[in-house]
Design brief:
21 strands; disordered C terminus; Rossmann fold; 6-stranded mixed beta sheet; Protein-Tyrosine Phosphatase, Chain A; UDP-N-acetylmuramoyl-L-alanine:D-glutamate ligase; single chain; 24% strand; alpha/beta; 3 domains; 32% helix
């Protein structure tokens, strides 16, 4: 593998990570360990991830201290790290180069001639995982970093060969502009991350810069069903491959979509107007039909054979926290999903409806005050496919509560739309209510990007005859 421009192994022998236990940071740490770098890091929360890194040779500190960075040649941090972090302050005072996580990932991607960056407001983890599964079936041996846990690679990182790299490209803080992919996937563009982006035009301008960074011989794989994506395609100069379900002009399309008893789709794949084959998916929902088309278009552009593409999609059963079945107890199926944006909520509940449950219970935890405040009207109609909705308190994540936004605002809006909705603040109370009211044949979906998944786990534990199942 060619040396990295910034990560010159002679100059930067020791790399330190502030917050090494995070899913993305730990993955980058693993990659650097595999490349022979000395790696250290700090994280207040001990976990199986930090223990795994220790066993791989990393020095992990269970606290933040300025002494931790002494001797490091490069320090990596995330946007969640505050400027007054003692390690960050010390590194800068010592003149140690400091870069953020996205910049490091971008530097690593430069070492791979065929790097793939999957972007979009929704669907990045699932589509990246589909592409990974297809590439593995095709023998391309990709190195991978994704935002979720994929069982077939044993987590969120895969150390593969030196030609193909697959990663998610998040638009938050325009971090994806630090990447340098050969192939960029653009799944959709919607208003989100409103604590950074002013409006939809600000977001579109960031995506345009991202797509414009693709080399002339590279590819942009774009969803032509999305008007915001479509509006930018005429302004970029590289190979453009389109896909879609509704768009008749898309190069890759799905027709004759049918669903099985689990809500998983099969469809006829159409390429440039010609029917190619029948595709069967192992994950539910119309949104995953679209995600699979993005994966097909991407992998075909990279030279994968259609037989391997078909096998890869059939073998893909999803990632953790994406319509993940946690268990079945007393005939009640408990599912967890990461959905935290109105469009994601709609797609997930539509997928649940296709499962033909007796009743769909949605337990929703709003994620960040700014998102609920700016997208409240959109959220008010996002739960129509749920029979009953339980709303918990807002998961603050990176934000602080100034008292202007609360979960009751969403409850009131849903009631205006005649939704059967209830606000319950504690997880214990939610489990009590579900245990008393859910019936055999029902589906319970815990939904949100915070810790709402614990409700499903508590429900299964409370009801003693729970059994773990796969999707």
């Amino acid at each position: 593998m060619k040396g990295l421009t910034l990560l010159d192994s002679q100059k930067f022998k020791h790399v330190h990570f502030i917050g090494i236990g995070g899913s993305s940071m730990s993955g980058l740490a693993e990659i650097l360990l595999s490349m022979g770098y000395k790696v250290s890091g700090s994280d207040k929360n001990a976990s199986y991830i930090t223990e795994k890194l220790r066993k791989m040779g990393a020095e992990v500190y269970p606290f933040h201290s300025e002494e931790n960075v002494v001797g490091a040649d490069l320090v990596v941090y995330t946007v969640a790290v505050k400027d007054d972090n003692p390690e960050l302050v010390k590194a800068r005072s010592l003149g140690i180069p400091v870069i953020d996580r996205a910049a490091l990932l971008g530097e690593i991607m430069k070492a791979y001639p065929y790097s793939v960056a999957v972007s979009g407001t929704h669907g990045k983890t699932t589509t990246s995982s589909m592409i990974t599964t297809i590439m593995m079936k095709s023998g391309l041996n990709p190195t991978v970093q994704i935002g979720g846990e994929l069982d077939s690679i044993g987590g969120n990182i895969r150390l593969g060969g030196d030609r193909y790299f697959v990663a998610e490209a998040c638009e938050y803080y325009e971090s994806f502009l630090k990447f340098h992919p050969y192939l960029a996937v653009v799944l959709n563009i919607e208003l989100d991350h409103v604590d950074y982006f002013r409006d939809i035009e600000h977001i579109k301008s960031a995506f345009l810069k991202f797509m414009s960074s693709i080399p002339e011989n590279g590819y942009v794989v774009a969803c032509s069903d999305d008007a915001n994506v479509r509006s930018l395609l005429g302004r970029i100069n590289c190979n453009i491959v389109t896909y879609g379900i509704r768009s008749r002009n898309a190069m890759w399309r799905a027709k004759g979509i049918k669903y099985d008893e689990r809500g998983c789709a099969s469809y006829t794949l159409v390429q440039d107007g010609k029917e190619i084959d029948r595709i069967k998916l192992g994950v539910p929902g119309i949104h995953n039909v679209s995600n699979s088309l993005a994966a097909i278009a991407s992998c075909y552009s990279l030279g994968c054979r259609m037989e391997s593409i078909k096998e890869g999609l059939a073998a893909f059963s999803g990632t953790h926290r994406r319509f993940e079945t946690k268990g079945i107890v007393k005939g009640i199926r408990v599912i967890d999903d990461y959905a935290h944006h109105p469009s994601e909520v709609r797609a997930t509940l539509q997928a649940a409806k296709n499962c033909k449950a007796a009743k769909v219970w949605c337990v929703f935890q709003p994620h960040t005050y700014s998102r609920l405040q700016h997208l409240l009207e959109d959220f008010s109609t996002a739960f129509n496919d749920a029979d009953s909705v339980i709303v918990s308190d807002i998961y603050a994540a990176r934000e602080t509560n100034d008292g202007s936004v609360h979960a009751g605002m969403l409850v009131d809006k849903l009631k205006e739309h005649h939704q059967d909705v209830l606000y319950l603040s504690s997880f214990e109370t939610i489990v009590d209510y579900l245990s008393a009211n859910a019936s055999p044949g029902d589906i319970i979906i815990t939904m949100g990007a915070g810790d709402i998944y614990k409700v499903g786990e508590m429900f299964l534990s409370r009801n003693k005859d729970a059994r773990a199942v796969g999707i």
